[in-house]
């Protein structure tokens, strides 16, 4: 058997087969070399029934501990606020040497929440695939969601080299590009590139919605592409984003503070007709967009 056809894990349990978890399931099914057997676990019987209907896992159950007991890798794909409780349920049931990993959008507080459940014989590899959409649930997943997207990995002292290598291979086989960093650095980077933009999108839609009703209907009728682009992000899942904001509170508040200072500076430039400042800021935005396109991340 060629090396890249050998499955990375014998049995992979995906806990929370929503957008991200079901994308991993679909990829595992499409490639055949992520795991020999795939188990999907969700607390919601409706989600389990849908995953079974979609036929994207070999086994589907609401019993997280029973699935974890069979698995060589348990991947937590639940909202970040649920990670600690789910780890407490699954880790005691895991086989010695089986790998624990998560895909949460924040890392410091997820690691803090999972740490009390960790065992010396269960290596833990925290990850964050930087790919997604505004949709959630098992129907939203895509086998190529991670193709050419970054997956950030924040190894810890309890991350063995062997577990890290396996999780890296799993994400490479999902098509992702990998980057390792510390959990604290991860949270600052994601606060600016992901969490603050979502906060701004939710806020601007709220501001528009607070306007008098006739103006609000005009917003809906005439929304130019600027507003429309914010509404896509603002359609994201409220529980997931509540959890992200609360769990990355410090880094997010710091980036929001910086943003508000810069927005004030822009307001001042507009008030005093400082054209050079305005043009400079817009040119910087255009340059960032151009680099994203060159990096194939647009
Ligand atoms: N949506 C996105 O674009 C991205 C999300 N993430 C992270 O991935 C994780 C999952 O996000 P999505 O797939 O978007 O969420 P989702 O809402 O589509 O799926 C989450 C699933 O977890 C299940 N769940 C919740 N609590 C549970 C529990 N205690 N036990 C078992 N199942 C439970 C829910 O029933 C749901 O089916 C989150 O931590 C999120 O921060 C990471 C990258 C991108
Ligand atoms: O849909 C979008 O624009 C996203 O930003 C998706 C996304 C959401 C959460 C993450 O942690 C990573 C990516």
TrEMBL record:
Pathway: Amino-acid biosynthesis; L-tyrosine biosynthesis; (4-hydroxyphenyl)pyruvate from prephenate (NAD(+) route): step 1/1. Its EC number is 1.3.1.12. It comes from the Bacteria. It catalyses: prephenate + NAD(+) = 3-(4-hydroxyphenyl)pyruvate + CO2 + NADH. GO terms for molecular function: NAD+ binding; prephenate dehydrogenase (NAD+) activity; prephenate dehydrogenase (NADP+) activity. InterPro entries: 6-PGluconate_DH-like_C_sf (IPR008927), NAD(P)-bd_dom_sf (IPR036291), PDH_C (IPR046825), PDH_N (IPR046826), Preph/Arog_dehydrog (IPR050812), Prephen_DH (IPR003099). Keywords: Amino-acid biosynthesis, Aromatic amino acid biosynthesis, NAD, Oxidoreductase, Tyrosine biosynthesis. One of its GO terms (biological process) is tyrosine biosynthetic process. SUPFAM superfamilies: 6-phosphogluconate dehydrogenase C-terminal domain-like (SSF48179), NAD(P)-binding Rossmann-fold domains (SSF51735). Residues 10-298 form the Prephenate/arogenate dehydrogenase domain. Belongs to the prephenate/arogenate dehydrogenase family. PANTHER family: PREPHENATE DEHYDROGENASE, PREPHENATE DEHYDROGENASE [NADP(+)]. This is prephenate dehydrogenase. The lineage of its organism: Bacteria, Pseudomonadati, Pseudomonadota, Alphaproteobacteria, Acetobacterales.
């Amino acid at each position: 058997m060629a090396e890249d056809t050998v499955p990375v894990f014998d049995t992979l349990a995906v806990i929370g087969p929503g957008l991200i978890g079901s994308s991993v399931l679909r990829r595992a099914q499409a490639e055949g070399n992520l795991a020999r057997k795939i188990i999907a676990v969700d607390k919601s019987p409706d989600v389990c029934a849908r995953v079974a209907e979609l036929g994207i896992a070999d086994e589907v159950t609401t019993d997280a501990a029973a699935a974890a007991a069979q698995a060589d890798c348990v991947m937590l794909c639940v909202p970040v606020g649920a990670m600690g409780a789910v780890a407490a349920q699954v880790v005691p049931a895991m086989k010695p040497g089986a790998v624990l990993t998560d895909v949460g959008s924040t890392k410091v507080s997820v690691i803090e929440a999972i740490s009390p459940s960790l065992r010396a014989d269960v290596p833990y590899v925290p990850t964050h695939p930087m790919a997604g959409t505004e949709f959630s649930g098992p129907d939203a997943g895509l086998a190529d969601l991670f193709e050419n997207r970054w997956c950030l990995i924040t190894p810890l002292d309890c991350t063995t080299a062997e577990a890290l290598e396996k999780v890296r291979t799993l994400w490479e086989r999902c098509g992702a590009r990998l980057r390792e960093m510390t959990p604290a650095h991860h949270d600052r980077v994601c606060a600016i590139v992901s969490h603050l933009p979502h906060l701004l999108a939710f806020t601007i839609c709220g501001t528009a919605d607070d306007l008098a009703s006739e103006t609000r209907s005009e917003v809906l009728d005439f929304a130019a592409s600027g507003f429309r682009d914010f509404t896509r992000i603002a359609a994201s899942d409220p529980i997931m984003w509540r959890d992200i904001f609360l769990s990355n509170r410090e880094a997010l508040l710091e980036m929001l503070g910086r943003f508000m200072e810069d927005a004030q500076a822009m307001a001042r430039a507009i008030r005093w007709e400082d054209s050079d400042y305005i043009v400079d800021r817009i040119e910087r935005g255009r340059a960032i967009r151009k680099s994203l396109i060159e990096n194939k991340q647009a």
